[in-house]
Design a protein that fits this description.
It is globular and about 50 Å long. Helices cover about 55% and strands about 10% of the residues. The chain has one domain: 3-Layer(aba) Sandwich (Glutaredoxin), CATH 3.40.30.10. The protein has a five-stranded mixed beta sheet with strand order 1-3-2-5-6. The chain has a two-stranded antiparallel sheet with strand order 4-7. By secondary structure, it is of the alpha+beta class. The longest helix has 25 residues. The protein is built from eleven helices and seven strands.
Length: about 240
């Protein structure tokens, strides 16, 4: 487990950069991640560049609306979005070919980093299933006195052996992917809280209820600029929380 602790200790450095240095080093951002309207097309293309191991996606990549979701697996607001809003988003927009959904890693603490690594190690076909379980059972592992042990116990239920779990926690490529995606989200796109969404390039912060989130999708489908739409501010988890 020494190597596990070393990897998670490295994750702490990532968290410190995001939480302490994010605002001062990366600067503030407007609704489009600090890029003005003239650069919107280039900004949207930059957003679509995946991490080293590729993006985890659902839906048709040719859908008229792309939603990129920066989340942390220990974020209660992200879990609320997963439980209350995601099923409706999948049913009405992803599965009908209207929305292409991309989930990006933005862990705020070492245990969230470990959880994202576990989901990636489960493989592309099981990734979203693991993420769903981790969000829905968040209190069983994220906020306990022994989170790594409890995460391992949850992994066993998902088919991991102790050996495969330990190997996942030592996988430098997976760790580097999670780290790079998070740092790029903060530095390039101005992500500073979770969940943060980019709907066709427009930044939306907070876990909005479906009644507020769906109109944003409809606006994007209609080709309207979301800058002109001012939804109620939803709850989010800041990087320094």
């Amino acid at each position: 487990m020494n190597q596990n602790r070393a990897i998670l200790a490295g994750a702490v450095a990532v968290i410190l950069v995001l939480a302490i240095g994010g605002y001062y080093l990366f600067g503030t951002s407007n609704g489009s991640g600090g890029v003005g309207p003239v650069d919107r097309s280039a900004f949207e293309q930059e957003l679509l560049v995946p991490g080293p191991l590729g993006d985890m996606t659902m839906g048709d990549p040719n859908a008229p609306v792309t939603i990129i979701d920066y989340a942390s697996l220990t974020c209660a607001h992200c879990a609320s979005f997963e439980v209350n809003t995601m099923p409706l988003l999948k049913e009405h927009y992803i599965e009908t070919g209207k929305v292409y959904y991309i989930l990006r890693d933005f862990p705020f603490d070492p245990i969230a980093t470990a959880a994202f690594m576990l989901a990636h190690c489960a493989g592309p076909e099981r990734y979203f299933g693991f993420v769903g379980v981790l969000f829905r059972q968040q209190e069983r592992w994220a906020f306990t006195q022994t989170p790594m042990e409890d995460l391992k116990a949850l992994a066993r239920q998902g088919g991991f052996s102790d050996e495969s779990f330990d190997a996942c926690m030592k996988d430098q490529k997976v760790f580097d992917h999670v780290k790079e995606v998070a740092l790029r989200g903060a530095k390039t796109f101005g992500v500073r809280s979770t969940p943060t969404f980019f709907i066709n390039g427009e930044k939306v912060e907070g876990a909005l209820p479906w009644s507020d989130f769906e109109p944003l999708i409809q606006k994007a489908l209609a080709g309207q600029d979301l800058d002109s739409f001012d939804p109620p501010e939803g709850p989010s988890t800041p990087a320094d929380e």
